[in-house]
Specification:
Elements lengths: L1 H9 L3 H15 L2 E5 L12 E6 L6 E9 L5 H5 L5 H15 L10 E7 L5 H14 L1 E3 L3 E8 L1 H11 L8 H12 L9 H11 L10 H27 L4 H20 L6 H29 L15 H26 L3 H24 L11 H14 L3 H21 L10 H8 L6 H4 L2 E2 L1 H11 L3 H14 L4 E6 L4 H4 L5 H4 L2 E4 L6 H14 L1 H4 L3 H4 L4 H10 L6 H10 L1
Parallel strand pairs: 3-4, 4-6, 7-8
Antiparallel strand pairs: 1-2, 2-3, 5-6, 8-9
Helix pairs in contact: 1-6, 7-8, 8-9, 8-10, 9-10, 9-11, 10-11, 10-25, 11-12, 11-13, 12-13, 12-14, 12-25, 13-14, 14-18, 15-18, 15-19, 18-19, 18-22, 18-26, 22-26
Length: about 575
């Protein structure tokens, strides 16, 4: 594990990565962080300040950490504004003079240079000379000392303090190593990491209860899980294959939420904060995934060549990307909703516009985006339509709804390339070679058609809806049009499985001739299910994106609550 951690540390940037890990390490060492790194604020060279007992000599000290990326070379030492020496000078000349709290003035100060790399030999003497010139008693600041925590020292500290043998047993460490070994493969889900999550959190008596000891162990367990996810993420990035990391991140968010729900920890502040840190690791993964795909979305048939391009895989790949980007947009919406800082809120709302633009380009440049092959592609379509609407691309979204409706009706009419309800890859292959069962058996049920009808209503597409309603009535005579709604059992399985199988109500719906009547049905169904929605914790706790992640990950039908919001906002 030390070798894995050492390699992981070498990949970290100082901003948003190494400086996020360090507070957890300090806490595990019994040292209390006083401040964390914040972008945009003057910190006088200090990324993290903390107070506690120094394990080296047992003396209480004020720790001042400055974090840097990678190896410390001559260039990183003092040839850039953010170099090591300028940062150390800022601490010595600025932080110690202006930022020390009165209760910490008499404590010895330990200034620590941290990096995931190493101190190169050609700057080692510079470091030694600086320490000699600035260490020792100071008439104003008291005793000052320096330390260097490079990759070797950090990996040792993490191994000794964070990798608790009880919370992170050898079996969990094996699961992590196996996940990393398979980081370049997509043949199977990262099941070893799924086991790691369960072994770290579930069926652990020491994590239950309301005592201070239990709370500390819960905090440490969540830190371990986030560290494990971050390690997998960076390994997958090195392997140029982010899909396993995305699946690991989605499953982590969902199972941690389930664990919090089971143990009634929604009001425990430290658990909430650690969940937020884990969520932002997921967010970093999905943003990286989107950035990697962006260029493919912006060119004609860009997703066709992303892997094996053929008639069958092309649309499947396309809708997977659509679902991921749609979920990212909802995540941005959620973060903006819960943010109290107006600048941060504005930042994330602007990012929704960029994601919506990316989805718009994808569906315009890839004809496969209008050829759903599974009925469950209604999930990906819904998530993307929500993001397009939020991201001020309603015209493109409306155009896509019309294009989808025409494509599905036409495909079913000729008996090829229509969205089957079996979710069977073999049935898709059989259809491709002309050996599938009758089309009526492959599309006995459709969620996608009534979902599209609702979006016709949201966009107020009166005449196109009339054509769609008539075509559906004439063409899909053997298909049951159905919407899925959660019930009282849904909360028990939403975050751990496809809740459509173990809970919920499938409601047969009629496509009325009048679009106004469709709107009335939507409003009534929303009101009728309001009490059920109030039992869904991700909705009541303000983390509605978790329901969207569950739908994308487990293929649970999207709860109509999400797009019914659009009707309410437009009315």
């Amino acid at each position: 594990m030390r070798l894995i951690i050492r390699e992981y540390l070498s990949m970290l940037k100082e901003s948003g990565e190494l400086d996020v890990l360090l507070p957890d390490l300090l806490l595990a060492m019994g040292i209390t962080p006083l401040s964390r790194a914040m972008q945009g604020n003057r910190q006088d060279g200090v990324d993290i300040s903390a107070v506690g007992i120094d394990p080296k000599d047992g003396i209480q000290k004020l720790f001042l950490l400055t974090a840097k990326k990678g190896d410390i070379t001559r260039n990183e030492w003092d040839k850039t504004p953010n170099g090591v020496r300028p940062s150390l000078n800022e601490i010595y000349e600025g932080y110690l003079r202006r930022c020390i709290l009165p209760e910490h003035k008499d404590l010895p100060k330990k200034i620590i240079l941290t990096t995931g790399g190493e101190l190169k030999s050609n700057v080692n003497q510079n470091w030694v000379d600086y320490i000699e010139a600035h260490s020792g008693p100071h008439p104003k600041y008291g005793q000052i000392e320096f330390a260097f925590w490079g990759g070797d020292e950090l990996s040792l500290l993490i191994n000794d303090n964070l990798l608790d043998e009880y919370l992170f047993p050898e079996s969990a460490q094996k699961h992590l190593r196996k996940t990393i070994a398979l980081a370049d493969q997509n043949e199977d889900e990262p099941r070893y990491f799924y086991k790691l999550i369960k072994e770290t959190l579930f069926n652990r008596e020491e994590l239950q209860g309301k005592t201070t000891s239990s709370a500390c162990k819960r905090q440490k367990a969540l830190c371990l899980l986030n560290l494990s996810l971050s390690i997998v993420f960076h390994w997958c990035r090195e392997a140029d294959n982010l899909k396993p990391a995305l699946l690991c991140a989605e499953r982590s968010v969902l199972l941690v939420w389930e664990w919090i729900r089971q143990n009634d920890l929604f009001d425990e502040e430290i658990t909430r904060l650690k969940f937020e840190e884990l969520f932002f690791t997921y967010f970093a993964v999905v943003v990286d995934y989107a950035n990697k795909l962006q260029s493919h979305c912006l060119i004609q048939d860009g997703l066709f060549g992303y892997g094996e391009g053929d008639e069958l895989e092309y649309p499947l790949r396309t809708f997977e990307v659509i679902g991921i980007l749609g979920t990212l947009g909802i995540a941005l919406w959620n973060i903006a909703e819960i943010s109290i800082d107006e600048e941060i809120k504005e930042k994330y709302l602007n990012q929704i516009l960029a994601v919506a633009q990316m989805i718009a380009a994808l569906i315009q440049n890839n004809p496969s985006a209008s050829i759903p092959r599974y009925d469950c592609h209604s999930i990906d379509i819904t998530l993307a339509l929500i993001t397009l609407t939020l991201g001020e691309h309603s015209e493109i979204a409306a155009w896509w709804v019309r294009k989808l409706s025409i494509s599905i009706v036409r495909a079913y009419g000729i008996g090829r390339c229509f969205p089957i309800d079996t979710d069977s890859y073999n049935d898709l292959i059989a259809m491709t070679v002309g050996q599938s069962p009758p089309k009526e058996k492959l599309m006995k049920v459709s969620v996608l058609l009534p979902v599209l009808a609702d979006w016709f209503s949201i966009f107020n597409l009166v005449d196109p809806y009339t054509e769609f309603q008539k075509a559906v009535k004439e063409t899909f005579t053997a298909t049951n049009l159905m919407l899925w709604f959660p019930d009282d059992l849904t909360e028990e399985c939403l975050y751990i499985s496809n809740a459509g199988y173990g809970s919920g109500v499938g409601l047969s719906v009629e496509l009325y001739e009048s679009l106004d009547t469709v709107k009335q049905r939507i409003v009534k169904l929303h009101q009728d299910n309001q009490q059920t929605y109030e039992k869904i914790s991700c909705l009541t706790q303000g983390w509605f994106v978790i329901g969207a992640i569950s739908s994308r990950h487990f293929r649970t039908p999207v709860m109509p609550w999400y797009w019914y919001q659009m009707i309410r906002e437009n009315d």
